[in-house]
Structures are given as C-alpha cells and as structure tokens.
Amino acid sequence: MSDTTPTPPTTPSATTPDRTGPAAPAGPSAHRRALITWLAVYPTITLALGLLGPVMTDLPLPLRTLILTAVVVPVAAYALIPLLMKANAAFGRRAGGAIRPIA
Hints:
The protein is mostly helical. Helices cover 55% and strands 0% of the residues.
C-alpha cells in the first residue's frame, strides 16, 4: 500500500527571497563610480587645503593628513557622493538609460 498523504503547497518563507518582484536597477559602472568619487573628492580636498593648509603648516605631515581626511571623507561620503549619484541617475533617465554617442 502506498502513502497518499498530500504534500502541503510551498510558500515563500521569510528566509527565501522573493524573486517575483522587479529587478533592482543596475548601478553605474566602475568607471562612472570612480569619476563620481573623484568629482566629490578633488574639489573637497582643494577647498580643505585652501582653508586649513595655512593653519596646519607647523603640524607634522601625518597629523595634517589625519585632519584633512577627517574633514574630506565624511563630506564626500555622506553629502557629495550621494548627491552626485542622484544626479547621475537623473542624467541616465533623461538620456534614456544610456549615454548616446556623438555622431
């Protein structure tokens, strides 16, 4: 005699990812992210050096670097890079998702 107990239907659990939703949009390429990072870091370093450089001339180089990075990294990471990433996404939507070559 065979066992005829029905198996319960499977439902997604809290640990199983739902694969039916929309795919997450792809982020910018590594080259675009590098450019965005550079566009945030270069002006921030230039401004910080212009403002803090004269004040820190007597400090040892490692301490000047520590102070400079303590200012630049948070400004770039929490303010400028997210702002530039949003601008990049808006530019991508406006350009139809891709940069069109100049012909």
